[in-house]
Specification:
By secondary structure, the protein is an alpha/beta fold. It is about 35% helix and about 20% strand. The two termini are about 35 Å apart.
Length: about 250
């Protein structure tokens, strides 16, 4: 489905029935990536809302600018369109950063959330990695894989990776201080790999200490986004347990 919102066309899937559950993918990913996590099929008892964030997949981004603040505005507009006042959510990396904006700007809209590989701000090591993001080194196989995911043409793919590289120069979009994180009302599970090359595990601990109703799961030997492959099953069990338990 496509929704015209905030100057872009936002593609999203909606399926299942029950409590609304928003699933937000990572940077240069797509909503379909969640099928690699929920390998046993969609979780029962949830009305899933699974968008492609602006500029990703089948969603457009005519502004040619990406900010997590804008991504949060897009998600609020999508929820309003669907008549959803309060939602549970899981976000991976880019999706988790979007959820931080949602949960601090409109705390009453997010009931419970799982933040995977989130960060309150960009450390120097992340900026160094972002500076290397480019399509210039793509092989033919890389291009083929990206064209399957981002279907609006090669220019979309180039712009998307340019935007991800440009985040190295962003300082005001991700700037969550402990007092700001303390305004989050959502029950929060923070999931973080102890070998994340972008965001040291100390940043997960900072968020855990600042967010009032939070729990921290450090994944041993986990890198960035440690919820795929062998980690998918334990993640799904733990995340759904967090989202469905009583406050």
């Amino acid at each position: 489905m496509l929704l015209n919102v905030n100057g872009c066309q936002l593609h999203y899937d909606e399926r299942g029935g029950g409590e609304p559950l928003l699933l937000l993918h990572g940077g240069t990913g797509i909503g379909g990536d969640w099928k690699l996590v929920f390998t046993g099929g969609d979780p029962d008892g949830f009305r899933l809302i699974v968008p492609d964030l602006r500029g990703h997949g089948r969603s457009t981004n005519p502004s040619l600018i990406f900010t997590f603040r804008q991504a949060a505005d897009d998600m609020f507009a999508l929820l309003d369109h669907l008549g959803i006042q309060r939602v549970k959510a899981i976000g991976l990396s880019m999706g988790a950063k979007t959820l931080l904006h949602m949960a601090t700007r409109q705390p009453d809209r997010v009931d419970a959330m799982v933040l995977v590989s989130a960060t309150p701000y960009y450390p120097a090591q992340a900026r160094a990695v972002m500076a290397q993001v480019s399509v210039d080194s793509f092989s033919d196989a890389d291009w083929a894989a990206q064209r399957q995911r981002h279907v609006l043409g090669d220019d979309q793919i180039r712009r998307l990776f340019d935007q991800m590289r440009g985040l190295k120069d962003s300082y005001d979009d991700m700037a969550f201080t402990p007092p700001l994180l303390a305004t989050i009302a959502a029950r929060t599970l923070i999931v973080h790999g102890d070998r994340d090359p972008l965001y040291p595990v100390e940043l997960a601990l900072e968020m855990y200490r600042a967010i009032p109703s939070s729990a921290l799961w450090v994944v041993p030997n986990g890198g960035h986004g440690p919820i795929f492959g062998a980690n998918a099953g334990p993640f799904v069990e733990t995340a759904l347990g967090h989202l469905t338990r009583d406050a």
